[in-house]
Amino acid sequence: MKIGVFSDSHDNVNMIKEAVDLFNAEGVELVIHAGDFIAPFAVAAMSGLNCKVIGVFGNNDGERIGVAKRFESLGEVHNNLAEVVVGNRRVCVMHYPEFAEAIAKSGEYDIVIYGHTHQVDVRQEKSLILNPGEVGGWVTGKSTVAIVDLDNLDVDVREL
User: Fold this and answer.
1) Is the CATH code 1.10.3210.10 the one for domain 2-159?
2) Backbone angles phi and psi of 89, in degrees to 5
């Protein structure tokens, strides 16, 4: 089973749509977004996904009510932290790296996903820590997403 992971889309609808196309082509069974959608129209760009989306709000998500309403047809959006069991894996999602570090060291989850820094981060503590970088591409000039194989916890970071 594979999941798609992205973060920090910052209203870049074109790159969100590219990520959607990639996730659909790869047959991911769940997509996780680690925050900073920004506006409801950015969430609407995810409507072409062939699977459910679980997301968390980031520090730049200003119109949270509108974003939450757009999410109603896609999946779930959480305020600070989302916990999900997918396949046989426990996954924890948040926006901020400070929380991710502490949670990953606990070993309570198989995967801890975060965003905010716009930098790709894939490493093993007691849990796998994953930041897929930024799909928006505004800060680093690179639009990246990750595909995780849940069977072996292999992470494939892709540049769009």
Assistant:
1) no
2) -110, 140
